[in-house]
């Protein structure tokens, strides 16, 4: 995988020069990515930074400005928890941006509008609370006793209105599997509105599966229990792994059936309906900007308005950036022109979106997470993991793994391709801003350059920490990943066990693999030799760090999880929940909230997948939900 990433995200260690393969894209349909090959979309540009510490300067200035914007909130008393009626609704999105004059749910093209006001319309029959997240309630300053209210399931199924909410569905477009799809929008997600807590943090509440909207097209606007359990659990699991993500407050059943053809094979069946309450600072996507940029001159001001909105509420540190020599970057081209991020807040914003996206994807690669549907309408401008559909964590290490049956023909969204796809998506996003004349081509290219640099920097740090090394060793890590792919080694369990290897070069050769024997299964003598050679090199590298085995083990176990949300674990919880037993969903949530802890008695949740886990609908899923 690393060689693939290195080929597609060319990067040098020099702070004065960096090279990157890219080409300015258009909003038109593009080709899919092929596994194991560098993307064809790219051609080389060279950028020369104006100072040795330019990248660090941007980060430090941005961080200082962020701290200034939060000044004065540290001493706010948040000891008092609120009931649902006391939540502080702000609803800036519908108050400040252009909306649809109609409020009906008839499927249609919605022009010159960022949203349509709609009410949840899902039918319910004795809805029940399946699971909830007290840590998300804490973000909202919501009293956890509110989960015990008899009307709580009614409210969060959308059947009973929440006082202060102004429900709407967002309008956006996007590229799906590399093809421009036009208008998409929230086809079954209805945002209730935004809540401000006592720290002035903004949290958007959204019900997924709450009924039809104008963006539902030919669908019913509903969601089923199996996909809702997966989204609820993975949102919270990813947060606990330290990966930026949307969150989930609660999951309720509707008490009604939903017809779904899970495998698209002409055999639909009735499944239990459910609704997840998703929570994020914003659900703005790359496609929110793409749609309006694609609709011509009249809508270009909407692109600007959406950009201003995002910066004002979610990137306020960019509003007051002063012109600064330290934030000017030479492009290295013949005209010697510079990109000055302080003179164009939209350029500074595009760079930050690119870097947040790169950092997020680097973290995905670190834990073996494969999103499965990296369409541009599933990419958050806040750099959050969003829209959990047919996702999957790696079991056996396979760079070509995709959890999405729809993705099988080209494996565009396979594990190894995710960094490339992230770049391609950033290219589409910056292209939309360029069409609206918010960015120059040089500024757009620079944002993509920064994506590449940020991804490689973060990825190298992550892999260095996973191995407990003092510094990045490309050869050692490349050889490791090659061996893991050949022998289909379990990604999570291998790195967890690796911390048991001692930095002792005198260990007899026939004992070197003992700490790893639980993951090096059924390998022949030739492969044992390959692994023994690697472990020798690894021990040699460790012996130069001066870190004790005990200290390194603690450090490695803090970044290598013992527990991940494997698909078969989800399926076990789903099977029980579909029979009315929600205990396994709640237990699995509890385990995934502490993924780096040993959790004695919970070892079964760290086991390799059983044979039944490889059946269709468990290890791989479609987009149907």
Automatic annotation (TrEMBL):
Q: Does the keyword Zinc belong to this entry?
A: no
One GO CC annotation, please? Answer: chloroplast thylakoid
Is Hydrolase there in the keyword field? no
Q: Which cofactor does it need?
A: Mg(2+)
- Alphabetical list of InterPro entries matching this protein: SelO
Sample GO molecular function, one term: metal ion binding
Query: Which UniProt keyword terms apply here?
Result: ATP-binding, Magnesium, Metal-binding, Nucleotide-binding, Nucleotidyltransferase, Transferase
- State the similarity comment: Belongs to the SELO family.
User: Which NCBIfam families is this protein grouped with?
Assistant: PRK00029.1
Q: What protein name is recorded for this chain?
A: Selenoprotein O
């Amino acid at each position: 995988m690393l060689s693939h990433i290195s080929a597609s995200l060319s990067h040098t260690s020099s702070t004065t020069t960096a090279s990157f393969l890219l080409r300015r894209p258009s909003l038109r349909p593009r080709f899919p990515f092929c596994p194991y090959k560098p993307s064809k979309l790219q051609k080389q540009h060279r950028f020369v930074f104006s100072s040795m510490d330019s990248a660090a300067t941007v980060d430090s200035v941005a961080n200082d400005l962020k701290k200034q914007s939060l000044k004065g909130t540290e001493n706010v008393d948040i000891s008092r928890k609120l009931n649902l009626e006391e939540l502080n609704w702000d609803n800036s999105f519908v108050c400040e941006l252009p909306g649809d004059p109609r409020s009906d749910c008839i499927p249609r093209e919605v022009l010159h509008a960022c949203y349509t006001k709609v009410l949840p319309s899902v039918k319910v029959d004795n809805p029940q609370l399946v699971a909830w997240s007290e840590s998300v309630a804490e973000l909202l300053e919501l009293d956890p006793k509110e989960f015990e209210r008899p009307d709580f399931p009614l409210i969060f199924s959308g059947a009973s209105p929440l006082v202060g909410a102004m429900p709407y569905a967002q309008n956006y477009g996007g590229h799906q599997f590399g093809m421009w799809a036009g208008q998409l929008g929230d086809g079954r997600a209805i945002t209730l509105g935004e809540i401000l807590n006592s720290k002035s943090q903004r949290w958007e509440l959204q019900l997924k599966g709450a009924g039809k909207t104008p963006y539902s097209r030919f669908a019913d606007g509903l969601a089923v229990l199996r996909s809702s359990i997966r989204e609820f659990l993975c949102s919270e699991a990813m947060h606990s792994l330290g990966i930026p993500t949307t969150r989930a407050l609660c999951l309720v059943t509707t008490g009604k059936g939903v017809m779904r053809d899970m495998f698209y094979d002409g055999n639909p069946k009735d499944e239990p309906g459910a609704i997840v309450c998703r929570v994020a600072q914003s659900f703005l996507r790359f496609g929110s900007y793409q749609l309006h940029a694609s609709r011509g001159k009249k809508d270009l001001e909407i692109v600007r308005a959406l950009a201003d909105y995002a910066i004002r509420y979610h990137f306020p540190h960019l509003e007051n950036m002063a012109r600064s020599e330290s934030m000017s970057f030479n492009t290295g081209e013949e005209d010697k022109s510079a990109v000055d991020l302080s003179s164009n807040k939209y350029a500074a914003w595009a760079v930050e979106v690119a870097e947040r996206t790169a950092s997020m994807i680097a973290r995905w690669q670190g834990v073996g997470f494969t999103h499965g549907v990296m369409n541009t309408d599933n990419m958050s401008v806040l750099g959050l993991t969003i829209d959990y559909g047919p996702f999957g964590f790696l079991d056996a290490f396979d760079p070509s793994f995709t959890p999405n049956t729809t993705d099988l023909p080209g494996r565009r969204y396979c594990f190894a391709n995710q960094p490339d796809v992230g770049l391609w998506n950033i290219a589409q996003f910056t292209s939309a801003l360029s069409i609206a004349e918010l960015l120059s081509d040089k500024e757009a290219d620079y944002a993509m350059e920064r994506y590449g640099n940020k991804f490689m920097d973060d990825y190298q740090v992550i892999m260095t920490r996973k191995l407990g090394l003092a510094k990045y060793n490309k050869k050692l890590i490349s050889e490791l990943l090659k061996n893991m792919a050949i022998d289909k080694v379990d990604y999570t369990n291998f790195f967890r066990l690796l911390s048991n290897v001692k930095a002792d070069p005198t260990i007899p050769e026939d004992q070197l693999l003992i700490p790893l024997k639980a993951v090096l299964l059924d390998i022949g003598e030739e492969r044992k030799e390959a692994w023994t050679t690697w472990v020798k090199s690894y021990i040699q590298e460790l012996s130069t760090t001066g870190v004790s085995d005990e200290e390194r083990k603690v450090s490695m176990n803090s970044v290598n999880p013992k527990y991940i949300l494997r698909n078969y674990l989800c399926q076990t919880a789903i099977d029980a929940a579909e029979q009315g037993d929600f205990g396994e969903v709640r237990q699995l949530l509890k385990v995934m909230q502490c993924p780096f802890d040993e959790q004695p008695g919970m070892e079964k949740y760290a086991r390799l997948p059983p044979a039944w886990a490889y059946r269709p609908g468990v290890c791989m899923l479609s987009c149907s939900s």
